[in-house]
Amino acid sequence: MYKKFWFDANRVKRTYIQLWLGWIPIGMVAYYLLYLVFQSEPRYSMFIVLIAWGYFWRKQGVKFKGLKCPKCDSLLFENSTIMFTKLKCKSCGLTDEHT
Ligand SMILES: [Zn+2]
């Protein structure tokens, strides 16, 4: 019954974490490409890359934190520690084992 919801919720969570950790490779690749383009150490252009990345990360974060429990319709997550734990509704205890 909630299978699709948890599938989507886990996907949103995974994307959020991947974007977060992804800054390291994204930042390195961007730095390298900008270096190739401008033939000098990128400074301001790196800020633009960082801001663009931050925008997408934040957007995904808002989507993730806005997830509502399909059973009791309250917000699922209170804080970002949920990134490191299993997805579970804080008010009714619904987890992805209840499918
Ligand atoms: Zn709930």
Instruction: Tell me, briefly, the overall form.
Output: elongated
Give the tally of β-strands: 0
Number of domains: 1
Bound molecules: zinc ion
Oligomer: single chain
Radius of gyration, in Å, reads 18 Å
Q: What helical percentage do the residues reach?
A: 55-70%
Give the low-confidence spans: none
Q: On the 0-100 scale, what is the average pLDDT? A: 88
Distance between the termini: 5 Å
Beta-strand residue percentage: under 5%
How would you describe this structure to a colleague?
- It is elongated, with a radius of gyration of 18 Å.
- It has 2 helices and no strands.
- It is mainly alpha-helical and 99 residues long.
- The chain has helices at residues 3-38, 44-65.
- Helix 1 runs antiparallel to helix 2 (44-65).
- The mean pLDDT is 88.
- The protein has one domain (3-84).
- Bound molecules: zinc ion.
- Zinc ion binds at residues 69, 71-72, 74, 89, 91-92, 94.
- Zinc ion is lined by residues 69, 71-72, 74, 89, 91-92, 94.
